Amino acid sequence: MFLRSSRALGLTAALVLTVPVLAAVPGATAAPEDQPRAAETPAISLWAPDHVTAYGYRNRAWTDLGLRVVAEDGPFELWSNRPSYDQEIQTVWKAPGGDVTLPLGAMDTFSGLDGFLSLEVDPTGRGKTLTFTRKACLNGYSERVEPSAPARSPYPTGCWYNAYSVGSVQGVQEGWATPVLTTERPLRIPAGEYTVTARIAPLYADLFGLTEEQATRTLSLTVTDDSPEPPHEHRSPAYRPAAHAPTGPQGARADGPMPDLRSLPAWGINVAENGNFLRFSATVWNAGNSPVVVDGFRTADEEMTAYQYFFDADGNQTGYEEVGSMEWDAKPSHSHWHFEDFARYSLLNADMVEAVRSRKEAFCLANTDSVDLTVADAEWKPENTDLLTSCGDYSSLSIREVLAAGWGDTYTQYRAGQSFDLRGLPNGTYYIAVLANPENRLVESDKTNNLELREIRLKGKEGARKVVVPQVGIIEEEGYGGTG
After folding, report:
1. How many angstroms separate the CA atoms of 412 and 416, rounded?
2. Which residues constitute the signal peptide according to the record (predicted)?
3. How many CB atoms lie within 10 A of CB 191?
4. Cβ-count burial of 111 within 10 angstroms (0-12 exposed, 13-18 middle, 19+ buried)?
5. Letter string b/e over residues 421-460, b meaning 16 or more CB atoms within 10 A of that residue's CB
6. Is the dihedral angle over the CA atoms 174, 177, 182, 187 positive or is it negative?
7. Would you tell me how many other CB atoms lie within 10 Å of the CB of residue 343?
8. What three-state secondary structure class fits 174?
9. Using CA atoms, how far apart are residues 412 and 363, in angstroms rounded to an integer?
10. CA angle 154–145–215, rounded 5-degree value
11. In angstroms, how far is the first alpha carbon of the chain from the final one?
């Protein structure tokens, strides 16, 4: 018998809004007199080159136009939280003079500031001017633009998020610049010559202390048709595993920082084409103040012994504990090493009794989704952010799998075993149960918050089943592609 988990998020780093909230982005009013304002000099500046050449393909141009936001006179930092799934995201600018609250609606999702930039693209000598509006993720691949600027930037790279994420951080280090646009969403323009005028939206320009002239840049753009396909994104390398299996006494973990595994509601739910299998995606994340670090050391052809490592507040290793095993998964959608007993997926009936258990029972830990980067000691720039760099191959003698604080590991529905067999089940109300650390093998600070349920309703005849999935709060899943 399962117990229903609480619907409240219980954020560990809930944002306390100390200033009045402005009106929503459309038609936002001026800030009240007691609202902290930007400094006399702009908090950020907009930079653009004089000319950019972009490679086009089928009347689309993949380019970031060279546009950069530069942090002036201090780091530029935005913290965002969703207090519950029934509420909009709240964003605060950590301004030098005190927290400044952005309007509700400034961020629909954690993917960036909505409507941050407008582009007027004027074909040289022909056609009409085209207008584009773009959101901005201020966590691009940053670069230092002043020799006296800090040597490193602490901020995340990219606005990673899940439909059920609850907190994020965006930032530009002082004296650093970050792209305003990405190349993932092309401009729908053919090859040719253009004049582009880029403007930070007046709402944001006023809030961050920019005049209209400071918030506007003009450049020339040449689009060629020489590239056969759009560019590919860079992927970061994995954490390195330990050189050998640990020795000495186990333990030394009681008083140090600890991970805290939690589950998000199942999402992307539908019935397979054959009408017999319920497919879904699931995310387990780490809300603790320490990463989950599990090393595997090969002991047989397709088996490794797994150890969890513990660290102090300075990141020094303090101990370890054997926590089970890893197995080689040869299925086509996996072909890597899995840690057993990381999560369990069950379909519960209306009485909270397990009706079906998913065959998915082993996992490769990786930081696929940013869930809440405002938790204490969240890691803003984890290294292993894709499965190809953290799960090893058949020849691996040892591997390290890491789930950083604030990050989630998502398994999407196309993975082998990620489904429930509906044959023989009556229609009615069910719950998809995502349970982290089901056998309590992993050491964590709280094991009472590992379960999350998602209500569904089965309909139709066997072989042609349909599923109704009630919405969770105001969350809209459509259009979310995820990263796992």
Report:
1. 10
2. 1-23
3. 15
4. middle
5. ebeebeeeebbbbbbbbbeebbbbeeeebbbbbbbbebee
6. positive
7. 23
8. coil
9. 12
10. 95
11. 30
Q: What is the mean pLDDT of residues 456-472?
A: 94
Residue 14: partners with Cβ closer than 8 Å, 6 or more residues away: 81, 83
Q: CB neighbours (10 Å) of residue 383?
A: 15
The rounded distance, in Å, linking the Cα atoms of 162 and 267 is 10
User: Which tokens hold the place of 481?
Assistant: 């592609």
Residue (of 260, 360, 247) closest to 297 by Cα position: 247
Cα 139 to Cα 169: distance, rounded to the nearest angstrom: 9
Beta carbons within 10 angstroms of residue 190's beta carbon: 13
- N residues, the chain: 484
Long-range contacts (CB closer than 8 Å, 24 or more residues apart) made by 89-94:
90/15, 90/17, 90/21, 92/15, 92/17, 93/43, 93/207, 93/208
Please, which contacts does 209-215 make with residues 24 or more away whose CB atoms are closer than 8 Å? 209/37, 209/38, 209/39, 209/40, 209/41, 209/42, 209/43, 210/42, 210/44, 210/45, 210/46, 214/42, 214/45, 214/46, 215/46
Taking the C-alpha atoms of residue 73 and residue 218, their distance in angstroms, rounded to an integer, is 24
CB atoms within 10 A of CB 397: 12
Report the C-alpha gap between 168 and 272 in whole angstroms.
33
Residue 361's CB is within 10 A of a number of other CB atoms, namely 16
> Among 186, 179, 192, which residue's Cα sits nearest to residue 229?
186
- What are the residue boundaries of the structural domains of the chain, listed by start? 44-224, 261-468
What whole-number percentage of the chain has pLDDT above 90? 54
Q: How far apart are CA 148 and CA 390, in angstroms?
A: 35
**Structural element, H or E, at residue 47:** strand 44-47
Q: Which amino acid is present at 340?
A: E
The tens digit of pLDDT for each residue in 211-249 reads 999 999 999 999 998 654 444 433 332 344 555 666 666
Measured CA to CA, the distance from residue 30 to residue 1 in angstroms comes to: 54
Pair of tokens at residue 184: 């993932």
- Quick check: 130 and 124 in contact, CB under 8 A? no
pLDDT digits (tens, 9 = 90+) for 389-448: 457 777 778 888 889 999 998 887 555 556 899 999 999 999 999 999 999 999 999 999
Q: Of 424, 413, 406, 417, which Cα lies nearest the Cα of 469?
A: 413
Contact 99, 93 (CB under 8 A): yes
Cα(456)–Cα(187) distance, integer angstroms: 39
CA atoms of 369 and 408, how far apart (whole Å): 5
